[in-house]
Amino acid sequence: MPELPEVETIKRDLEKRLIGKKLLRIEIFQETFYKKYFKDDFLLKLKTLLSQKIKEIRRKGKYLLLLLENKVLVFHLGVTGALILGNPKGGNPLFNKKHLILTLEFDELSLFFIDIRKFGKVWILEKEKLEDHFFFLGKDALEISFKEFKDLLLSKNRLIKSFLLDQRIISGLGNIYTDEILFRSRINPLRKTKNLSEEEIKRIYQNMQEVLVKAIELRGSSVKNYINGKGERGAFQEEHLVYGKRGSPCPICGNPLQYKKIAQRGTTFCSRCQR
Ligand SMILES: [Zn+2]
């Protein structure tokens, strides 16, 4: 599932090529399947976007926002969603057409929204209602200060894994990056937030920043199907120490890595190194 580094990578890819471009045509595929998200007025709303220019592209947690002149097109990539820029003519060799949901056509450039498993979502907002809509979202994991992070953490009595995953508290992290951050911080995912020491909190915070920055630099983690805005795979999966490695030897102590459902998510960790 695309998390903060993947969505940020896509955002930067789109920013380079879409700002100032006028939306000329919209083509929608798989309308029936997507009716539940598109709702009845979605098609009508889509038409109101035509001839508007892309003013800005923003990321909020794991959401990607295309800000037009007075509307905002919001994407959530779900599990396998992707936004890829390409040539409108001649198809696109990067993906199978049956996974195409929506195409936005600009002058000599198209943006393809594809989704294999179809848990992704797209909707339209009025620009002035943008902040109201995202009020529930916690501070961005890349922007939160150490003090804010520490205060939030100590104000909750949650498992650290579930705390980091909760988008209402901190936004942007998912299963891959929480497992990597906790392993690098040597913190057991079952620890309660209230019982963490200042030094442990600092470790988690620093690793969170380092992992996210590095993952963006390497253009995300391509596990399963993630591809970025250029249709390429990321490289941070090569840096994964524990995610997806259950049973493999721990890179620090050599003991087999454990796997357990924590906060409803399959969690990989080393019970010896993570205390
Ligand atoms: Zn270990």
Give an overview in words.
- With 275 residues, the chain is an alpha+beta fold.
- It has two domains: 4-133, MutM-like, N-terminal (N-terminal domain of MutM-like DNA repair proteins); 139-269, Orthogonal Bundle (Helicase, Ruva Protein, domain 3).
- The protein contains eight helices and twelve strands.
- A four-stranded antiparallel β-sheet has the order 1-6-7-5, with helices on one face.
- α1 runs parallel beside α8 (198-217) and α7 (175-185) crosses α8.
- The radius of gyration is 20 Å and the shape is globular.
- The mean pLDDT is 92.
- Zinc ion binds at residues 250, 252-253, 255, 270, 272-273.
Determine and state the CATH class of the largest domain: Mainly Alpha
CATH architecture of the largest domain: Orthogonal Bundle
Radius of gyration: 20 Å
Lateral arrangement of strands in the main beta sheet: 1-6-7-5
Q: Span between N and C termini?
A: 27 Å
Tally of helical segments: 8
- Which consecutive residue ranges, at least 5 long each, have pLDDT under 50? none
Mean pLDDT: 92
Count of the domains: 2
Question: Strand share of the residues?
Answer: 15-25%
Bound molecules: zinc ion
Characterize the overall form. globular
- Give the class from helix and strand content and strand pairing: alpha+beta
- Helicity level, as a percent range? 25-40%
Order of helices and strands: HEHHEEEEEEEHEHHEHHEE
Instruction: Describe the sheet with the most strands.
Output: 4 strands, antiparallel
Number of strands: 12
Question: Would you tell me which CATH topology of the largest domain applies?
Answer: Helicase, Ruva Protein, domain 3
